[in-house]
Design a protein that fits this description.
heterodimer, A: mainly alpha, globular, B: mainly alpha, 2 domains, 3 helices
Chain lengths: 350, 121
């Protein structure tokens, strides 16, 4: 008996529905904070520091690895201040809306044939819908703070997030046309078993046929995350933090966890949609092989996409507000409409 | 329960768990953090000087026209998604139909562009 059959024998035990649900939910609840910590440490602290010829945090833990935990503990002890003029209920709930919407994206992200919380038929549609809920939280924060900077930041964020929602959705449409399904698992298997113009050497990772879609998706993700070069809603030098300006302690931290959690989730979505998800371009590990190796394969792809996202972040200066809107409406949306039509023609004709 | 509903039950469980986690973290914080109230702490922040006027002052929402355009394109997206999943079955008929649909919507964008609402106003 080979090792593979032993493993699959052990894992093939029928788990009752409730137990499977608890395991899945527990694993994801652990993965998200860890993901936010890893991304924050590797990219925000170390990669940015090295790109700017400095060391970054070095004191907490070896090479500063525990810096973010120390920061979290610090935020835990901070006083929870509600401005006297703020709308208290809305002010209190806004960061929770942002963070919970981030959690909900992870429900559909597949990391193996069975390693997914819920395989929804409308997978990618659900992910996009849930991710755009954070706009509501940000508008709530901006309005409820009763602060001029916050109001301005909230309005900027709303204008930016709805403008880039469209390229994001329309870029995904090309992948949906090629795969013929909204189900993220089926999108992965389509890429693994697909072929490019009759050649099936590496399957058909959609980045090769949908490179325009991939480009639009990455730019739109950057704007959805309100990261530089699209960080006008939180621009420190103009509106000192925008909608976050009145927040303290853990509620302030929630916005950051939401940002990095969403960055990880969008990187995962990009790797599922364009880079083949948990599947390998060559070699079939079998059903249980992929259930075990899938998360590791996904992690490599997610880190690669995140590196790209954060590289943009550290490289480009902030755009002006009107340049931002011009880029979305006059370039990205027409480009993604053309992409849809061209993809449709290729799908039908070829 | 059907497989379909079970999947959405998981989403609901996840929503409850995420809320519990978030409120739990806030609860933990409330046990640890101090509360030393001073009136200055609750003033609206305006870069260090005393706030002038109300926080909810009138401001020019420059992008309200974009919000209308957004609704138009979002509805379009809802129509394109089901079409995109079944394009193979529709064939060239579906392709031409959708090309006309996208063309008419693009016309709307071009109209807005020519009217000058896509710039800083």
């Amino acid at each position: 008996m080979t090792a593979a059959t032993v493993v699959s024998g052990l894992l093939a035990v029928e788990v009752p529905y409730w137990a499977a649900s608890i395991i899945k939910v527990g694993v994801v609840a652990l993965v998200i904070p860890t993901a936010a910590l890893v991304l924050g440490y590797v990219f925000l602290m170390k990669m940015m520091s090295f790109m700017q010829s400095r060391l970054g945090p070095m004191e907490a833990g070896p090479y500063g690895t525990l810096q973010l935990l120390a920061d979290g503990l610090k935020f835990l002890q901070k006083e929870d201040i509600f401005p006297a003029k703020a709308d208290r209920t809305v002010f209190a709930l806004a960061p929770l809306v942002v963070l919970i919407s981030t959690f909900l994206i992870y429900v559909v992200i597949p990391t193996g044939p069975d390693a997914v919380v819920a395989q929804l038929d409308v997978g990618i549609f659900y992910a996009l819908a849930v991710s755009s809920l954070s706009v509501v939280g940000i508008l709530m924060a901006g309005w409820a703070s009763a602060n001029k900077y916050a109001l301005m930041g909230g309005l900027r964020a709303a204008g930016q997030l709805i403008a880039y929602e469209l390229p994001l959705v329309l870029a995904v449409m090309g992948v949906v046309i090629q795969a013929g399904t909204l189900d993220l698992q089926k999108i992965v298997t389509t890429q693994a078993t697909g072929e490019i113009f009759g050649w099936d050497g590496i399957g058909n990772p959609f980045i090769l046929t949908q490179f325009a879609g991939f480009f639009i998706f990455l730019v739109a993700v950057q704007a959805e995350l309100t990261q530089p070069p699209f960080d006008m809603p939180v621009a420190e030098s103009e509106i000192v933090g925008g909608y976050q300006v009145e927040y303290t302690g853990f509620r302030f931290l929630f916005f950051f966890m939401g940002e990095f959690g969403t960055a990880f989730a969008f990187a995962a979505l990009a790797s599922v949609l364009f880079l083949g998800g948990w599947a390998l371009p060559w070699g079939d590990l079998g059903h249980w092989g992929f259930n075990i190796a899938g998360p590791a394969i996904m992690l490599v792809k997610v880190l690669a996409v995140s590196a790209l996202i954060f590289w943009f972040r550290f490289t480009y200066p902030r755009l002006r507000e009107d340049q931002l809107q011009r880029l979305a409406w006059k370039f990205l949306i027409p480009l993604s409409l053309v992409n849809i039509v061209v993809t449709g023609i290729f799908k039908v004709v070829l | 329960m059907s497989e379909f509903l079970r999947d959405y039950l998981l989403v609901a469980i996840f929503l409850v768990l995420a809320s519990a986690l978030v409120f739990g973290m806030l609860g933990l914080g409330s046990l640890l953090r101090p509360t030393r109230s001073q009136p200055q702490k609750y003033m609206t922040y305006e870069s260090g000087v005393d706030p002038v006027g109300l926080g909810w002052s009138q401001s020019n929402i420059r992008y309200y026209v974009f919000a209308l355009l957004f609704v138009m394109f979002d509805v379009e997206a809802v129509f394109i998604f089901p079409w995109a999943t079944r394009l193979e079955a529709y064939g060239s008929f579906g392709l031409v139909e959708m090309a006309i649909f996208i063309f008419i919507l693009a016309l709307g964008l071009v109209y807005a562009w020519r009217k000058g609402v896509l710039r800083w106003i």
